[in-house]
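[Structure tokenization] protein backbone as discrete codes
[Encoding] learned vocabulary of local backbone shapes
[Protein] chain in single-letter code, fold in tokens
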Amino acid sequence: MTGFRLGYVPGVTPAKWARIWTERLPRVPLELVQVTAADAPGVLRRTEVDAALLRLPIDRTGLHAIPLYVEQTVVVVPKDHLITAADEVTLDDLADELMLHPRDDVLDWEHPPGRLIDDRPARTADAVELVAMGTGLLVVPQSLARLHHRKDLTYRPLAGVPESQVALSWPEDETSELVEHFIGIVRGRTANSTRGPAVAKKRPARTPPPARPKKPRRRR
């Protein structure tokens, strides 16, 4: 079998599934390719990767997508901010706050909260730097807050806002045997599942037949 190329967007951690893949298909190399959230659908359509772990919603034209899990949305703030006194934040808590809205935002907003700063940072990483400078606050999925962790920043869960849903996606006309196998892994199927490529099993060692008892020799 050839190798399998798996794309993944920032914040998504494929390590667990990659480990299971290596255990089940040690002779099929798994290549992990990081792609931006905006580029992920195009990378799939151009078949630059075989499948990708990405964030919904996307334009699903020509693509399959299996939702996997939903992430908590959080607000990133300086550690000395008043918001840190709360265990959970609401939209009302952010109503008077200056808010950063990066151009690579992955949340499906209709109206982002707070008082939006007109100058939008190009990347989430840039927005995090601005939070640390005291420019404004930032709302992101929890995994991105962890990815861009800084000692001078923290975050709190934000209620009543869009959440990020992570999915496994692949081209509609490219449902290969290896794609089926990876689908089985992310869905928690066992190695003995009937779907996906068969995993080679070691043949049990052949047990030699028992020795025949020797006949006693007759005395002449």
Observations:
- The mean pLDDT is 89.
- The first strand starts at residue 4 and ends at 8.
- The two ends are 68 Å apart (CA to CA).
- Strands lie at 4-8, 30-34, 51-56, 63-71, 73-78, 98-100, 115-116, 137-141, 153-157, 164-171.
